[in-house]
Amino acid sequence: MTLYDFLYYIILPILSISVILIIIRFLKGPSIVDRVIALDLIITTGIGIIAVYSIITNQPTFLDIAMILALIAFLGTVAFSYYLEKRNK
Fold it and tell me: Are 43 and 69 in contact (CB under 8 A)?
């Protein structure tokens, strides 16, 4: 089994199943905090999928896209936490 087979047949299905489970948590989340964390985790899992796709197709430019997406996700999470902190006061 090569690295490409491992990524294609093991890692991508695991990431796909995790996205489905995270979407269920996002929809059923009892509070807004759970939904924000689930949204951040969906973006993080998407970054993993982009990274695996970049390795499989041998196109490193997708890693730049993944890094930009990670930065946007981080800033979004910080903004949500700031909003939630100000809302509770």
Answer: yes
Question: Is the pLDDT confidence value at 89 over 70?
Answer: no
Residues 45-73 pLDDT 10s: 999 999 999 999 999 999 999 999 999 99
- Encode 12-51: b = buried (16+ Cβ within 10 Å), e = exposed: beebeebbeebeeebeeeeeeeebbbbbbbbbbbbbbbbb
**Domain ranges (residues) in the chain:** 3-88
Q: Is 15 helix (H, G, I), strand (E, B) or coil?
A: helix
Among 28, 57, 77, smallest CA distance to 85 is for 77
CB 63 within 8 A of CB 30: no
